[in-house]
Design brief:
about 20% strand; single chain; eight-stranded antiparallel sheet; Immunoglobulin-like
């Protein structure tokens, strides 16, 4: 509730709204504050006098010029008005919120002042409010839009009873404990309220003045807090039309977006407009506001989680900074005395980096906290508005609130909940330079490069040549000096280096025909060599096949489960050939080799099968969901369970020429074809939970019953 307090304060006086009115721009202002910021326009410049004088300036042009003049006054901070005699050196007042307020009264020419002073003693009731001058103009203190008042003056603006009710409830919730109304001297804290008498009692006064006998025995006593609520729920006031004060608001004009009365429809400007029942539109707009608040609530929840993430980052930066500084001091202390001066410089750099990271993250925390506070305040205010049971009052502000909610939700857009700084210090100290190079001592990169990413769409084979392409991960900031490409011998043998350099694409010639090659690449810099990329299996064509009909018939592929990409709950053993899980939920593990062409076959045996775990077997894209059953998204194609048990063998046959997948259980084919129309790059994959254990078997020949298809004539196999 505290965040909502800013929504309940007048932008002029800075206090809680008192008798708020709604300006045409949908902003609110106290009625007394509105009277204080009125500016009187000279009669000679009013639209009526302009028309009477026959000038060529239309009403529309005059209003635009009038608004421009008021904008200029608001920007300059002075309350003077062009062509109007006022004190040009008197700055306008300022409210506690920093909003400029025009002087409450307007200076008059000397002759008019003298006449006014002579008539002053004739004014009755000196405490009453003076009438609003003709041609008065009011400027919104928030958006600076201006409006010339008509003959009704401030009575032409509708009162915001919903806001007034929210303010009353808020102030009552913050009020002190309720006091007894019958104590004569110092009132004691009330302990009960009689709903029939509508009086708060302390215990002594209740026993003395409200005994539980006789006619009073039938009265209902409730706790003071409940009694306070019952007082609030008084019947709502019937809203009257600002145009026809004797008529109640009963309809809603869709075109003007405002409640209207019956007489407005009969003789007013709303006669030809579309109108709807007030109650129906009330419910409709409440639903729209509630729906808009749902999205904003999700953003607020994300913002809270993001703040927790940022605060954790502050702790990690502090811990990493302390650890890094300690290592730096230890290295510098081991050097000769000539390193001491350089050590101070290096420590200064570390501290600056440390403070910079902390400053960036703390600034983001502060910014996000303020935005979240504003969002929470708006949400609480909107929820309180929804509680109101005044349709016309609600509809007067619902459109503006809906727009504000959507606009606030848009402010939590893409990038707002992303950290602007990492918590790592990508620096380390190289203590190997000679003494004469101490003055050149500087930081070097602390980390080795990340594993490169193979660009599978650009990797292909042609006859007995293979072309591979790779790149660094998008978010990697560590510099790379070069790459090392490795291939095996095409027969499952050890890897060997075939390229070392700075290029990110390489074509290897002179490979064996009708062979399956494994390829991988890693990056290096001055700090060392990084990890390998994922292994890519590529097959050369048979001797004599045209370049775009590349296919391997009967070639086998060797691979294991990939621990790097597996879900954290996955448990691998037996050289990553046996897998189980420590979770009751389904978790996904993929093979460490990707297939894009050829015919491939592998099998899996069920070592343990308890309580119907329902594992799934198949193929998947590299970005498949790892915490759901295989095949639940559009990134995987799988067979689940199918009557298998302990000791069963599941086979998967993947044919890129025909672009199909076939499943086998205990050497028996399960249906003709499981999936068709496969294109792209796929990994062998399974999903399982803790009730099952599976062992992988690779390097198997294609089953005898299957005849591989012809190569795709379009060349897509390439």
């Amino acid at each position: 509730m505290d965040e909502m307090e800013e929504e309940l304060k007048c932008p002029v006086c800075g206090s809680f709204f008192r008798e708020p009115i709604i300006l045409p721009c949908s902003h609110n202002i106290c009625q007394a504050c509105a009277r204080n910021i009125l500016v009187q326009t000279p009669d000679a410049e009013s639209p009526q006098s302009s028309r009477a004088s026959g000038s060529g300036v239309s009403d529309y042009d005059y209003l635009d010029l009038d608004k421009m003049s008021l904008y200029s006054e608001a920007d300059s901070g002075y309350g003077s008005y062009g062509g109007f005699v006022s004190a040009p050196t008197t700055p306008c007042q300022k409210s506690p919120n920093g909003v400029r307020v025009f002087p409450p009264t307007v200076l008059q020419p000397p002759a008019q002042q003298q006449q006014h002073q002579q008539q002053q003693h004739l004014l009755p009731q000196p405490g009453s409010l003076p009438p609003i001058p003709r041609n008065s103009c009011i400027t919104c203190p928030q958006c600076h839009r201006s409006l010339i008042l008509d003959d009704r003056g401030l009575r032409g603006f509708p009162k915001n009873r919903v806001l007034e009710g929210v303010v009353d409830r808020y102030q009552q919730s913050k009020a002190a404990a309720l006091k007894c109304q019958l104590c004569e001297k110092s009132p004691k804290e009330a302990t009960a309220m009689c709903e029939q008498c509508d009086v708060f009692y302390c215990d002594p006064c209740r026993l003395r003045c409200h005994p539980p006998r006789g006619p009073l025995a039938k009265h209902r006593l409730v706790p003071p807090a409940q009694g306070r609520i019952s007082r609030r729920t008084s019947p709502r006031k019937i809203s009257t039309c600002t145009e026809h004060e004797l008529e109640n608001l009963s309809m809603y004009c869709v075109q003007c977006k405002m409640p209207v009365c019956y007489q407005c429809l009969e003789e007013g400007k709303h006669g030809t407009h579309e109108v709807k029942a007030l109650g129906a539109m009330w419910k409709l707009h409440k639903g729209q506001l509630s729906q808009a608040l749902t999205g904003l609530s999700d953003r607020a929840t994300e913002a809270k989680d993001f703040l927790v993430q940022l605060r954790n980052m502050v702790q990690h930066i502090q811990e990493n900074g302390v650890e890094f500084e300690a290592c730096l001091v230890a290295q510098c202390d081991a050097l000769i005395e000539a390193l001491n001066r350089r050590k101070a410089q290096l420590l200064s750099r570390v501290n600056k980096e440390h403070e910079h990271k902390l400053k960036v993250v703390r600034d983001q925390i502060s910014h996000c906290t303020v935005k979240l506070r504003q969002t929470t305040g708006l949400m609480e205010y909107c929820l309180e508005v929804i509680k109101e049971n005044d349709p016309s009052g609600f509809l007067q502000i619902s459109d503006a609130l809906i727009r504000r909610v959507h606009m606030t939700e848009g402010q939590w857009g893409k990038g707002t909940l992303t950290p602007r700084m990492t918590s790592d210090f990508d620096l380390t100290l190289d203590s190997g330079p000679l003494l004469q190079t101490i003055h050149q001592l500087d930081f070097v990169q602390m980390k080795v490069p990340a594993a490169p990413m193979l660009q599978l769409e650009e990797c292909c084979t042609q006859n007995n040549s293979a072309t591979l392409s790779w790149k660094q991960p998008p978010l990697s900031t560590v510099a790379v000096e070069g790459y090392i490409l490795e291939l095996d011998d095409g027969n499952g043998g050890p890897f060997r280096e075939v390229y070392v350099g700075t290029e990110t694409i390489c074509t290897v010639d002179g490979l064996h025909f009708n062979s399956t090659y494994k390829s991988r690449v890693k990056a290096f810099n001055a700090s060392g060599v990084g990890q390998y990329s994922k292994t890519l299996i590529m097959q050369t064509s048979e001797t004599g096949l045209p370049p775009c009909d590349i296919q391997s018939i009967g070639a086998v592929a060797w691979f294991t489960f990939d621990s790097a990409s597996a879900h954290p709950d996955i448990i691998l053993s037996n050289d990553n050939l046996t897998v189980t899980c420590n979770s009751y939920d389904d978790r996904v593990v993929m093979g460490n080799s990707a297939f894009s062409r050829g015919v491939h076959y592998w099998e899996m045996t069920i070592d343990r099968y308890d309580n119907h775990p329902d594992p799934a077997f198949g193929i998947a894209r590299g970005d498949v969901l790892k915490d759901a059953m295989l095949g639940k998204d559009d990134k995987a194609w799988a067979m689940s369970d199918g009557g298998i048990g302990k000791g069963a063998t599941i086979g998967v046959l993947l044919d890129f020429a025909r672009r199909i997948v076939i499943f086998l259980i205990n050497d028996e084919q399960q249906g003709p074809v499981a999936f068709e129309g496969l294109e792209g790059v796929y990994y062998p994959a399974i999903s399982l939970n803790r009730n099952v254990q599976i062992t992988l078997h690779t390097g198997l020949p294609i089953p005898d019953f299957y005849t591989p298809g012809e190569a795709d004539p379009t060349g897509s196999v390439c």
